[in-house]
Specification:
This protein has about 280 residues and is α+β, with helices and mostly antiparallel strands. Helix content is about 15%, strand content about 45%. The protein contains five helices and 18 strands.
Amino acid sequence: MADRQGVNFEKWVAAGNSFIVVDGDSVKNDERSRFAIKVTDSENYIQADGVLFVSVIDDDLIRCDVYNKDGSIGEVSLNGFRIASAYCFSNSKRVGWKWSSLSLDKWISSQVSDRWQIENISSEDGLFSVSLKQEGLDNYHCEKINVDVLSGWSVFGVGNPHFVIPLDQEYQLEESHYENVFKKISSNENFPFGVNVHFLKRVNQLGDYLIQTYERGVGRTLSCGSGSLASSICVNNEIDKDIEHIKTKSEGGILEVVFGEDFVICKGPAIKTLSGCVENF
């Protein structure tokens, strides 16, 4: 909430993906890009991947508007949605949001994304576990694209554009080349507005994968919730079609994606690391 001292905030981390979280009415819409650029300037303020502007529309709907650290609007961030859900849960009295184990039809969305159902929230010693669910799988699909000598899958239906590069015994790529690959793919004609690029390595035949992510507007990041979903869609649709429970491990932690007959559930952790106030904004 804005006050004489500035804008109060909390910093949260979800599987390594970090966001500054503020109440939605703390910053005017036309000032949000400038605020996001300023507050995520790690040399002068705080290291974070972006800013979440969170508002409780009513007891059934949370609005979570996502801004990248370069000030651009993020279409969807599942790690951000998990953080926003935990933020409202932990500040329930102040923001006027109720949750219980019997809660039904609780939803979250951004300014441009579809709604996700908040299926479950639990906490232990300050560490939250949040599960999000979405009905319908028809909108998800993959298209194989070649960029020079690289071959990967463009994944549709998640919100942000995603390009997944599966790495296996036949196709190796040194980690030192990831950033250059990201830049090359981001400038490809198939992605006129940029793209999130994910490097995916199979660990075993049970659905465990290692993932490294480079996000548009951010660069290398420790985690990407929508990227883990996009990579899991690629696994479920194209790579290991019989695998329904997929775990992607990034430097930031493990995210789980479970495919049902006509739904998908995304589960992962969230934790608050600090709180403070941005002055002179």
